[in-house]
Each structure stands twice: as C-alpha cells, then as structure tokens.
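Internal tracking record. Fields below are filled automatically when a chain is submitted to the structure queue. Please do not edit lines marked as system-generated. If the sequence contains nonstandard residues, flag them in the REMARKS field before resubmitting.
Queue: standard
Priority: normal
Entity type: single polypeptide chain
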Amino acid sequence: MMRRPRTTTAKVVENSTDSDLSTILISDEDSDEWTPAEPKLKAPTTTAGAPAVPGEKKAAPKRTAKPKEPKAPKQPKPPKEPKVPKPRAPRKTAAERKTQASKVVKVSRTSVLAGTKRKNIDEGKNDDKAAENKEEKHTDCGPSTNMKKERVSFIVSEANQADMWAGEGSSPAGLIAKKEEVEDFTFDEPCLKKQKTSGAFLGQPSALPSSTANVLRNELNMNWDFIEVLSTLTCVEQWVCVNIIRLLREENTVPFMVRYRKDMINHMDADAVRDVQLVYEELGTLSKKTQSVIQTLKKDGVLTVELEQNLRSCRSADQLDHVYSPYKKGSKLTKARRAKALGLEDAASLLMNTPHTLDLRTWVKPGTEGLSSVEEVSTGVEHILADLIAKDPETLAYVKTLCENSFVTIQSSVSKSALKEKEQKSVQDHKKPGAKQNKKMDIDKFHLYVDFTSNIQRIQPHQTLAINRGESLKILTVKVNIPDRVKNDFTRWCIDNSWKPKTFAREEHWAIVRSAIDDSYKRLILPFLTRNYRTKLSSAAEKESIAMFVSNLRRCLLVGPVRGCVILGVDPGFRHGCKLAVLSPTGQIIHTDVVYLHNSGQQREVDKLRHLMMTYSCTNVVIGNGTACRETESVFADLISRRCFHPLDVSYCITSEAGASIYSVSPEAVKELPDMDPNLRSAVSIGRRVQDPMAELVKIDPKHIGIGTYQ
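SYSTEM-GENERATED OUTPUT FOLLOWS
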C-alpha cells in the first residue's frame, strides 16, 4: 500500500523527455531558499513531521499519509518498477554513474508528485482533474528538483566522488553538490564551547579583564613581571596563568578547575595545573622573603636604593641569598663593604664613568688601614667593582648562558677525612673495631662514587641523591667543573661590553678593571654557579624520587588480592624459627605457631607443619622476603614436589615484608592485635598483604615500605 502511489506516479514521470529534465534543472537555479535535509537516504521520512504549506520547499512529504490519496490506485502499475531502486548499487563507469543520477532524479520526482497531491487534498481544493494535473506539472519543477538536489548531493558526498560531474560544464547538479558539502561542513562544526577552546589555543582568552591582570602583575611589588616569569617557568601561556591564579585566589580546587573550568585553563591536566600552582606559591614566598629582607636591612640602616633594586630583581631564592648574604647579621664584613666603609665607592664610580679624572694618589691616607698606599686603594676599588659585577643581573644571565652551551660536569671523590680514617684503621682497629667496621661499610656503599664524573645534564636522579648523602656523611667531596672557556669568554665580554670604562682610561686603570673581573668570577660568580647547579639537581632529583615513589606505591596498592582461600603467612628466620599465621578467607586469624625448619629436628617440624595445613585446608603459602627466605622457599618447594600435602594442591609465593617488623611493634598493631607476640604479628601482616594489599599497606608509614628511589 505504501509503494503504489510512487509506482503509478513514476510512470508518468518516466514518460517525460530529456528536454523536460533539462528544463527542470535550469529552472531550479533560481531557487535560493532551499535548505538541505540531513544527508541520509531516509531524510524525507525523518523530516516529514513539518506541516505542509503550499510554496514552501523545506518540508518533505509525509509518507504515512499516502493511503489518504484517492487518485493514486487508478493508474496502471508499470512492470519495470522493481528496477528503480538499483541506483544504490556501486558503479565504476562514468556512463553508469550518469544513469544512476538520472534514475535517482526520477524516484525523487515521483515522491514529490505524490506529496503535491496530498497538499492539494489537505487544503481542500475542488478543481477538476485536468486543472489539478496541470497544476502538478507546473509545481513539479521546484519540489522535484529540490529532492533531486538532495539525492544527488548525498550520493556525491557519500562516495567522495566530486569528479562525477566533471565535463558537464556549468551543470546545476555540480553546483548543488558543492553547496551540500559546505552545508555538511557547517553542520560538523564544534559547539560554542569548542570554539572558545580553539581560540584559546591561539592565545586569545575569552574573558580576561585587564585590570585583574595588572593587579596580579604588580601584587608582588618586584622589578619583574610576575605573570611573564610564571609563564616562562611553567611554559604556559600568560592568559592561562592569569586565569589559574584568579581561580586559586577564589579558593577553587584543582579538580574543580580541571573538570568545570576547562576553557579558562586551556584544557590542561591536573598535574600541569598543580605545577603552575607550585611555582605561583614559590614566587609568592620569594616576594614575602624579599620584603622581609628589605625591612631588616632598613632597620639596620644599610639599605640603599641600589641594594633595594638588586633585591627586587631577584627571581629565585638562590639569587636573593647571593645578594643578601653579605648583609646578614653575624656574618663578617665583605671586602666590598669594608672598602665602601673607607669611602672608596666614589673612586670606583669615577673609574667606570670618568677614568681620566681619577687619581688614586688623592685617596691615600697614611696611617689608615686600607688607605695607606696606592696599592691598598686599588685593591679596595677592585673589591667594589667585583661586587658590582657579581650582582649585576645582566652579567649573571650572560654567564649562565655560557655555561648552558658548555660541557659542565659534576665530580665526586673520597673526602680527605675518610681517607685519613681509612689509613688509620689498621692502627686503631683493636681499640674500636665496631666503629671502624661501620665506617668501612659506609665507604663501601659509595664505591661507585669514589671517582665519579658525569655531565650535569645527563646525571640521573638516584646518582644525585647518592652523592648528596655521601657528602652529608663526610665520605664524599663534590664539586662542579666549569670549563676555562667560560671564564675566557666572560672576561672578554665584560671588557668589551658591559664593564668597559666610558672614556679613555690609563693602563693602570685597565689593570684594576681586569683584576676586578677576574676576582669577581673566581671568588663570587663561580661559587654562585656551583650552588645554583647543585640546588637545581637536588630539586629535580627530589621531584623525580617522589614521582617514582608514587608510581611504585600505586602499583603495590593496586595488586590484585587473593580471595576465597585459606592463607598461611610465614615470617622466615633461623634462630627464632619461622613464624606462622593461618588466616581465613576474610583475613581472620585462625591459628598461629612457630616451626624450626632449619634446625636438627627438621622432620618433626615438617610433620607439625603438614598437620597444621591439613587441619585448616591451607592451600596458599606466603613467604616474606627477609632473612632465611630462600632456605624456607626450598623447604616448601621440596615438600610440594614430594606431595607431602596430598590431597591438597598447595602453592607458595614470596612477598615483600618491608615494614612488617616496624608495624609489629607500632601502636596500631598493639590496638589491632593486643594479646599477640610481635613476631607473630609480622606473620599476620605478611599473609594479609597478599589477601588485601591496600588494606594492609596503609597501616605502615610510607617511608618504611621500601619502594622509593633512594632510601
């Protein structure tokens, strides 16, 4: 019943000539209000819910209303109608493709004729049949061509064959297919939220008040741009940094920002947001420390405008300590401060600005320490210039750049005190053998770093931690080797650029400048670079060790539990025997005992163990990896191979017992197992680590689990 109107109308359309089709195609170029339906063959059915209005070309005819048409069954049925659906079959020849398109046009015109008749019936038109058929032919051009556009464009887009209409000239079908592609592209555009995000990746924030950004930039009261430094240190765009800081100041948590403020943070993950938060807090701490130092120096009466500017220009805690250390209470007066106290600061200023007017003999004051001769005056001026050079931000930045482009190494060796004690060991061994043995053992632990050298950029985090620990124990001596080429390039740059006298200078004045540059590099800049490198390496190693600990801990806690079976936990040992704990499938303690599997009466202990396992149907044995682990494992493996536990199918595994001894005497263990011996508590803990690792390991202090990079 549904196909009869289409078949009868199709016959009428098939009788039309090719000239009629060309006329329909040409007349359809003038229609501009056509809106394409969804690119599916069943589009007329899905959009049939819209009401039919005469002259409107957007709504497709509703097929379910076809049984209401009274005139459709009167037309004869064509015998060739079953061949119409064949345009969906794949075609590889160009001629067959054209034939396919023409057949689709015929089918679309057929459905539109039926729809036009339904429109006329619903509107209540009472014209005669001839006038109605004539009206159908006149109105057939618009709707049928629209359906043709829809069908043809769908075939082109589905098969990705835009060249199907090549050679047809300015064919309307080709233009229609292109228009359909544009509409499809518009339909596939992302939503408004995605558009904001795509703009954000180009560095275009959607809502960033300039006043807020300025407040954030100036809130620290430093000489550098806070947002710019934060962006540089974290490699995050500036507008994203501003948004993250604003969200943090509004007391938003990192999970909230990652889940519900994705556009504001440029779709960053939680770890990246935490890194920005950490650097932001570090810069805030640096600002507060700088303000405290300035207030302290102001109270002491040693704060100058130049010193304050140098303090506010520091971008790290190391730079701040480098500038502030000479002025700390209790520290000795530096050479530069002693020279300034003698009044030689003006002489240093004249040497750099107007050296032709400087006469060092006028600054000589016989009987005054530090000014009694021209040599002492020259030395004081050198110290002041060296201090200025070492605290100049541009100079420090340049020398850091030179080091980055050079082969800087870190070297460790045995300290003199350790060598001296090692030489005296043979003499004093009989007096304190225990202490000397412990010291020897410590030296043996660091045998890999007795003569160790590595590039500063290639050293591993665990090596850095080992070197630091050896240095703290006064076993190793560590130093950073910077090549001499850095010094030569630095000296040449200072003389030719930044620290060259502005006017003509005599040879003795140039000698003072060269000596000041050399003294500044050796005495001030080189130790600063060494501290800077050591601090960076230690910080990176600590972060890596934390990340490694997190990864290992996650693996330990997420180990699959062994459920539904009775487990025998074994804490192996020689002298005190192997502690046993039989645990139920739910972790309850069924029985505890001690067997001595490594003594003379082994057979009696084996029988005791077999009776215990047979009594409680224990099929899984968990052995701790501590003392006597391998010996206990060999005993159980031998018993299983000899089928001593038959008919039980017994298997064993080895697990880490790190922290079990410490847990057995902890307050938590006493509360949980109050009436049990500490040795048996460790066996219970070992067994439960296999039954439920997460529930058992959370009872132990993380530093005792033994999964870190360097314990």
